[in-house]
Amino acid sequence: MLVLLSPLVPACSWAQDDAPKLLSTTGGNGRQSWKNLAELQKAAAEGNPEACLQLGLGYETGAEMKQDYAQARMLYERAAAGGVADAIYRLGKLHQDGRGVESDPVQARDLYRVAALANVPLAQYNLGAMLVSARGGKRDYVEGLAWLILASRNHLEAEGERQVREHLAKQPAIIAAAERRAEELSREVAVRKGAKPPWPPPDSESSLSRPSALLPPVEKPVVP
Fold it and tell me: Is the model's pLDDT at 138 over the cut of 70?
């Protein structure tokens, strides 16, 4: 049995699940910031995509306001429409966990893929974990390990990648194929750098289903 562990996300990473720093005035990580919650709410109401993301995360986590997954989802969708890839990742997480919406692993996987191609590390990790675990579609060790490799390169804890490599140790051809696929994906991500992620997301399930050798099931992955 292979169990993927949650990555240890650096404290500086915006994509982590920590509560947003709504009162920050530093604009850390290249993101906009607001002096107080009222300013943030005003910016979100005016349609600022970054403000929608931050306020949505506040509603999702219950930071400085009552937890409201439906509000979080609405704000994430506005941010996603404005080109914020992290909001697409957050929507995928809501669909995966069934928060403010019925649990839908197929939709979660599609959303993760859009965010992963926009170089959101946790989306890359979660997509890889779902692929190797056959969640939301067919199992695919080649594509799944490839995304886990990219997540590791983006400074997430590499334990998930290590576990899958160990699981495939007797099938080096699959590992080699995943490494080649990781290079392809890396180039595709680089080409898309700076581009607005597609919204609404396309149905990407067909592009996720790549043939790979059958191996014993991977059970109960734990993803962030």
Answer: yes
